[in-house]
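dumping this here so i dont lose it
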């Protein structure tokens, strides 16, 4: 399967949208001659193997299978047959009349009836619905569902969820009621103990906010040929643990000049900690030399007793005047000696900051890769023509509020379609865009049609002031080590997310600081998995 440009194999998993998964199924049948019964049989057998792994020996287990009229209901009916053959006691409950079942679902319904398996309509299930089986299988709705749930299906979902803690709840392909694209319930969804999703995790299932519904997520291949996936690439991808293999290795021959030189431009009265945190992020991620360029008047506060962080105090037009266009040439000159630059942490929002940025990117991009963060994004929203001068090696790291300002949207509109917002800004700027937040979204604007890349992390311990400054420093250090902007962004986001997961064990009720996030960076390698 194709890997997004500049990302090495194994660094991402491909996540089809529900419509793309349906297209894979159709191509397998039309182009390769797969019979739909075969695909359904493959899915049910894969689900059986997962269920056996989750529950243990299935002989004697009482299993209720809720079956809708679509493909998921067919999967449930086929699974009922396999369960009966293994000595379990399945009862299939039909959510719709038999006449509504079509194609492979109808085939498996007829086969189950011929075998004499117990099947009842949900509308007349009576006391059966009040029993607490050992296993409750959710085959009501598939990945094509878009909310809201109809009243009767909402009642079925509620009935399944009422068994939580008493029965093992097992969803086929996707928990019923969950949107396969957004991962949001409509407005409720089955809260599964485990989910067996077929061939690939759909984009919505990968997002952190879907986890309370999916439970343990098992991806089950069902035989879709690799040629189909290559010809019809997924429009989403998820960062995989293998990306950590691309953290720069420590060579015994390296010295501080070859370990990566990062320049940070930022800081203003009251915001002196931001560039320092960014510098610490770069240093803890392995940079050899980190320098903070800031107005001379705040240099002692930026230094903050950190001898390992160098500073470059910039002359001010008058004492306390802060940033100005006159500083731009000095920072451009310093950038030529650096391997990567971060602009924005703590820059402030005075008029001088805008003049500084305009001068910094005049007549064109810096000579090295760039991370634009925080207050630099504030000015980018006001002076959109700056975007054309950032260059092809820029990474932008907005949070939802900054993204809303850049796109002239509300925060609610950004959050309602985070992939769409990231795509829009990436297309406008040609940069790699990192839309921060739970399930961070990354889009490469330098390649048309690039997939939306999703982070699996949602770590409350990262929701603290200065966390984004640390991330900007990590991304800059990776750029300084020669990683492509897309790889640096994805690897930095994943590494930062692992720190949040690690800190949740040390600080289970939060309470950590951004300094703790930076300090965790070199330590996650003892236990790299969250």
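and the seq i came up w/
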């Amino acid at each position: 399967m194709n890997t997004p440009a500049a990302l090495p194999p194994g660094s991402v998993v491909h996540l089809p949208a529900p419509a793309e998964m349906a297209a894979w199924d159709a191509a397998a049948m039309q182009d390769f001659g797969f019979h739909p019964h075969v695909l359904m049989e493959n899915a049910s057998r894969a689900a059986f193997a997962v269920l056996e792994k989750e529950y243990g020996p299935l002989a004697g287990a009482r299993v209720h299978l809720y079956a809708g009229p679509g493909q998921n209901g067919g999967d449930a009916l086929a699974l009922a047959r396999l369960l009966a053959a293994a000595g379990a006691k399945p009862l299939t409950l039909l959510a719709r009349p038999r006449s509504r079942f079509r194609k492979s679902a109808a085939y498996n319904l007829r086969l189950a009836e011929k075998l004499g398996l117990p099947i009842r309509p949900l509308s007349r299930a009576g006391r059966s619905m009040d029993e607490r089986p050992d296993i409750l299988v959710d085959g009501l709705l598939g990945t094509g569902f878009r909310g809201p749930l109809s009243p009767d299906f909402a009642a079925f979902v509620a009935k399944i969820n009422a068994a939580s803690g008493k029965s093992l709840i097992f969803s086929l392909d996707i928990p019923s009621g969950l949107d396969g694209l957004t991962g949001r319930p409509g407005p409720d969804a089955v809260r599964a103990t485990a989910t067996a999703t077929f061939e690939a995790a759909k984009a919505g299932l990968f997002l952190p906010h879907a986890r309370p519904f999916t439970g343990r997520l098992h991806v089950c291949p069902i035989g879709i040929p690799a040629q189909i996936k290559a010809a019809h690439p997924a429009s989403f991808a998820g960062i995989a643990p293998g990306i950590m293999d691309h953290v720069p290795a420590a060579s015994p021959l390296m010295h501080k000049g070859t370990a990566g030189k990062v320049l940070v431009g930022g800081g203003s009265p009251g915001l002196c900690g931001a560039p320092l945190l960014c510098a610490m992020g770069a240093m803890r991620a392995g940079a050899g030399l980190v320098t903070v360029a800031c107005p001379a008047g705040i240099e002692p506060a930026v230094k903050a007793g950190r001898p390992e962080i160098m500073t470059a105090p910039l002359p001010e037009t008058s004492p306390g005047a802060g940033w100005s266009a006159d500083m731009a040439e000095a920072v451009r000159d310093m950038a030529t000696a650096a391997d990567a630059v971060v602009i924005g942490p703590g820059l402030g929002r005075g008029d001088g900051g805008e003049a500084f940025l305009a001068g910094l990117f005049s007549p064109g991009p810096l000579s090295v890769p760039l991370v634009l963060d925080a207050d630099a994004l504030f000015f980018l929203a006001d002076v959109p023509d700056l975007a054309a001068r950032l260059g092809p090696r820029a990474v932008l790291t907005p949070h939802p509020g900054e993204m809303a300002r850049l796109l002239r949207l509300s925060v609610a509109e950004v959050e309602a379609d985070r992939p769409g917002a990231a795509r829009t800004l990436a297309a406008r700027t040609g940069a790699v865009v990192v839309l921060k937040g739970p399930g961070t979204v990354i889009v490469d604007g330098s390649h048309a049609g690039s997939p939306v890349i999703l982070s699996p992390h949602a770590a409350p311990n990262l929701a603290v002031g200065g966390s984004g400054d640390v991330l900007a420093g990590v991304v800059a250090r990776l750029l300084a080590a020669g990683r492509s902007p897309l790889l640096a962004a994805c690897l930095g986001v994943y590494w930062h997310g692992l720190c949040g997961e690690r800190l949740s064990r040390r600080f289970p009720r939060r309470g950590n600081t951004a300094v703790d996030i930076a300090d965790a960076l070199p330590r996650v390698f003892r236990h790299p998995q969250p």
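The longest strand covers residues 289-295.
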